[in-house]
Known about the structure:
- The structure holds two protein chains of two kinds.
- By secondary structure, chain A is an alpha/beta fold.
- In chain A, 26% of the residues lie in helices and 19% in strands.
- Chain A contains five helices and nine strands, in the order ααβαβαββββαβββ.
- A six-stranded mixed β-sheet of chain A has the order 1-8-7-4-3-2.
- In chain A, a hairpin with a 7-residue loop joins strand 5 and strand 6 (145-147).
- By secondary structure, chain B is of the alpha/beta class.
- Chain B contains six helices and twelve strands.
- In chain B, the strands form three sheets. In chain B, strands 1-9-8-5-4-2-3 form a seven-stranded mixed β-sheet.
- In chain B, helix 1 packs across helix 2 (47-56).
Amino acid sequence: MQATTLEGGFGNAPLDSARAFRQIMTAVAQPGIINDVVGATPPAPLSVAAGVVLLTLCDPDTPVFLTPEFDTDDVRAWITFHTSAPLVDAAKASFAVGSWGDLPIADFAIGTSEYPDRSATLIVEVALLNPEGAELRGPGIKGKATLSLPDTAAFQENAALFPLGLDFVFTCQNRLAALPRTTKVNAIKVS
Amino acid sequence: MTDYNFAYLDEQTKRMIRRAILKGLAIPGYQVPFASREMPMPYGWGTGGVQVSAAVLTPDDTFKVIDQGADDTTNAVSIRRFFEKTAGVAVTEATVDASVIQTRHRIPEQELRSDQILVYQVPIPEPLRFLEPSEVETRKMHSLEEYGLMHVKLYEDISQHGAIATAYAYPVKVEGRYVMDPSPIPKFDNPKLNMAGIQLFGAGREQRIYAVPPYTDVVSLDFDDYPFEASKADHACDLCGAEDSYLDELIVDDAGGRMFMCSDTDYCAGRRKAGCIGAQGIPYQEDVA
């Protein structure tokens, strides 16, 4: 077992995860805002923010899917050691980590009409995370917000599934933003 | 503090509750099942709210607890002390100073900000439960958006009483989709459900968590010819003179004497401090109960 596997977890799990969860929750409750998180130093290519989300929310009850880019021995060992989450196929996952183009969006669970909460949360690693780009409207947003998104059509299709659908957390270095299924996304037209 | 894990619950339990809260925020008004734990207080005393608070509190928070608007009732005091002891959080009775507010059956009169979180204690989370006792059936009704029964109930109110007689736990529709029980708040508080703060609802015995994100559309159910009306006792507060706050009626002697006073004790005290005096009030003095 590599030393890197054992390192990089929360120094004080109860307090670090409480603070991290607050940042994640306010991001989900107010789509478009970007929050900083600290506490995890996962092995590359996982970002700090993706590591924090995994440590805060994942455990033996939450199967995790990794795209090939992230499915390395170091990452698998780190997630297994720190969270004990089983690593599975996309269809069985409650969480997934990957870059946008690599995530098999159509394969993830979107919930059932009686249990729409039984749906996957995708942690999308992005190179850029800025409060500019696509226009967001919906619950949690006063009027409208803007956020750099890797796609538009896919999020519109996802929102159309409401109350079913996927929920997204975008991670970039130590920052994160969220896009729950309720958010209506519009590409800003350049005219 | 060293005798307990931070905020009492173990980490795996908090993760499970946190995941339920996130799904709740992503599906506003939908009741997310969660594995409610036994807490060191009986069901019915706010175990759902306490578990949600335990999952969201950080050591940097300032925590306020109200029971029917009051900070100084047994339930509010004991829950406040519980988290003072197990989470080491600062506590307050002032709505403006609190970052997390746990409430039983009221929304504070003071408008909440976007950095404040309101945690409701919920006894029966299912708005259709008294109309349809079967969980299988009510779950199906929510999935099909079949809420006709609720409108029949409100219609029967009108046909029997001449008005919608439901005075508390008045059903609302969230973001045009799920009908939700706002917990037994008076319907006077319903318009305040459209707020800047995050609202989380926890039902411990019934094992459900649901949520309303900020700026979410929350509409009280009604009819075109019988529109929703946020009602309160037609009176001013006898202590502070407020005419815009929800009032409690208090019997003060054996001869039927009564007075009305703000249910929100912080709001009332704040007004009295500012020099407002009601019909039976006396000028505010520090440390006078």
